[in-house]
Amino acid sequence: MRKRISAAIIGLSVACISLVSTGSANSHGYTDAPTSRQVFCAQGAVSDCGEIQWEPQSVEGPKGFPSHGPSDGTLCAGGNSRFAELDDPRGGEWPATKVTAGQDYGFRWKLTARHATTDFRYYITNDHYDPSRPLSRADLEPQPFLTVPYGGRIPDATVTHRGTLPAGKSGKQLILAVWTVADTGNAFYACSDVQF
To answer: Which residues lie within the region annotated Disordered (predicted)?
Structure first.
């Protein structure tokens, strides 16, 4: 009898630890304007995407970008090796959303589970960006071109942030969107290829 009780206690302890360690798994989201790589995979517009085709909302990694967070070369997958296909530049051939420099744009997130939020930030690549190479911090402008603070509020299931695309951009570029969760150690990442 004592062995069974001990086994039950150990089983419950493992279950509780599992629940605590996956506490942030209930918060998910992705960008669909401009269309992110994970959405192109989920739609079947791009093949050989691995697990992300079933989980476009799950690109979650450590927060604190750009001083912390995912390592260079793993930014589009949020540092999550399960979704490494998002970091593959595919020779610069990811589909791209057509945009215009200086254009007013509605950047949209779909949140399949909402969470207390610090902010949403949008970074764009600089003039040295090579779309045929994995994204690194050195490829991005040093400051986000749009920051939307939330101060711990919970956003709606669909949020659109109006902003202006930087002037002077041309050719193929990439926008890295970062949704920083307030009450966990994580953020969600989305890479959207754009064509100016």
So the answer is: 57-81
Domain ranges of the chain: 26-195
Strand-pairing partners, residue 114, are none
The burial of 94, by beta-carbon neighbours within 10 Å (0-12 exposed, 13-18 middle, 19 or more buried), is given as buried
Q: 3-class SS at 141?
A: coil
Residues 80-101 have pLDDT tens digits of 999 999 999 999 999 999 999 9
Which CATH code fits 26-195?
2.70.50.50
Contact by Cβ (8 Å): 50, 85: yes
Contact 59, 30 (CB under 8 A): yes
Report how far residue 69's alpha carbon sits from residue 62's, in angstroms, rounded to the nearest whole number. 5
User: What global pTM score does this model have?
Assistant: 0.86
pLDDT over 90 (residue 190) = yes
